[in-house]
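Blackboard transcription, Thursday session:
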Amino acid sequence: MPELPEVETVRAGLESLITGRTVLACSVLHPRPVRRHERGVDDFQATLVGRTFATPRRRGKFMWLPFVDGDALMAHLGMSGQFRVDSPAAPLLSNTRVLVDLDDGQQLRFVDQRMFGGVWVSPGGADLPEEVRHIALDPFDPHFDAVKVAHRIALKHSGIKRVLLDQTVVSGIGNIYADETLWRERLHYDTPAASLGIRKLAATLRTARSVMAEALTQGGTSFDALYVNVNGESGYFDRTLHAYGQEGRPCDRCGAPIRRDHFMNRSSFFCPRCQPRPRRQG
DNA sequence: CTGTGGTCCTGTATGC
DNA sequence: TGCATACAGGACCACA
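(Written on the board underneath:)
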C-alpha cells in the first residue's frame, strides 16, 4: 500500500508493535528484497540479531526502523510490499520474503508480491539514512514549507503532475493522490507548472496534504489484499476517490465521464470538463 | 535540465 | 479450455 498515507499507516502500526523489541533471529526466504543490502543475504540475517528497535520513522514513501545503536533497518514497500506482525505459528502468506523473530514472541514479516520493494540495513542511518537524503520533505513534515516548494516548482519547465510525482521536489505523492489532488484543484495533469503562479502552486501542495491526511484517517487506500496494514486490515479511502480508477463514471462535480489517459507510462484519471487541457503554454 | 522508455517482478482480469 | 495481452499504489537508469 505504497503512497504516503499507506506507508504512514504501516509505520504507525509498527511503532506500537516493535519499538523497544530486540531481534532474536532473522530468516530471508527470497534474496531479491534484500538486494540493496550491500554485504549480502547472510550478513543481513546475522547483523539484525541482538539489535533493539527504536521508534520507526518515515520520509515520503521511505520508512526506516532505527536501532538504538544508531544503525537502521531501511524499508521501501515498492508497489506491493507489506509488513505484518504475527505469531510465528500463523501460516505464512504467499510471497512472504523475510522473517524477523522478536523478543516478545511475535514475528515481523515482510511480504512483497512483485518485490520492487525491499529491506536493508543502513549503517549509521538511524537519524537520516543516506538513502533518503535525496528525497524531499513530504507535506506532513513539520519543516515542509508549501510556499518555498512552490517557488522551486515555478522554475520548472515541466507539467504539474510530473512535478508532483518527483520525489526530489515533494515526496510521498504517488499516482492516486496526484490524480485526486489535481481533480480537487481542477488542473489538467499536463498543465505547465510554471504557468500556475506561486499562490496556486502552494494551494495545490496544501490540497495534496489534506487529501493524504484524509486518506490517513481512513487507513489509506486498499483496492485488494495487496494493501493492508500490519494487522491485515484494509483502508477505506477508495470510497472517497473522485478521479483515480473512476474511468467512465460521472464526475462527482459536473457529471461528465471521467477519462483515462496514458501518461508517463501509467494512467492518469481526470474529468475532461473540470480539468481541461490548457489551450496554450505559459 | 526535461522527457521517454525500459527494467526489475508476480498476479489478476479480460479478450479471442 | 487455453493462450495472449494489458495492467497494477514505484524507483531508477540510460539515453535523446
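Lecturer's comment: Residues 32, 35, 78-80, 95, 112-116, 156-158, 162, 224, 226, 264-265 of chain A lie near DNA strand B (CB under 10 Å from a C1').
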